[in-house]
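Hypoxanthine phosphoribosyltransferase, Nicoliella spurrieriana. Tokens?
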Amino acid sequence: MNNDILKTVCDQKHIQQVCKRLGEEITKDYQGKEPLVVGVLNGAIFFMTDVVRYMDLYLSIDFIDVSSYNGGTQSSGTVKLIKDLDSDVKGRDVIIVEDIIETGRTLNYIKDLLNDRGANSIKMCTLVDKPEARIEPLPVDYVGIDVPNEFLVGYGLDYQGKYRNLPYIGVLKPEVYQTKN
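Tokens:
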């Protein structure tokens, strides 16, 4: 897998520093509250696990799965709910944890869904933000790192389900995905 990586954008040590910083920020902001932390499957699993370890709060965890990529390298523009939450969000303070924010469509879809269900508050936390790729406006409350508009994999980020288990984030060589699309 490492041979498919053009360059490293964020190494394992830096990722852990980011997780610690974000966990501490969220702890400070949510003192006296018991938030519901919602991970967006499958990519957010690694990041969410590491961030909540740094959150000194009583909290609940749940997962939602939505898709807009269908295995490709660009969003289809249509968000589809694959797996819904098991938790009731009515009256809850919700923190949505995502591995990467690009167009903004996915998180706007989830945010609207949870607002319609009566969440008390909704905040967004992402490891990686690609502001250059944003199509829909989306305020992000907790951002790990801003990255250029390149195709990234590792630490939860994938291409066709592969590369999620890399312990760092890297740019996938274009020849890997250009020859397969």
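Residues 34 and 59 are 5 Å apart (CA to CA).
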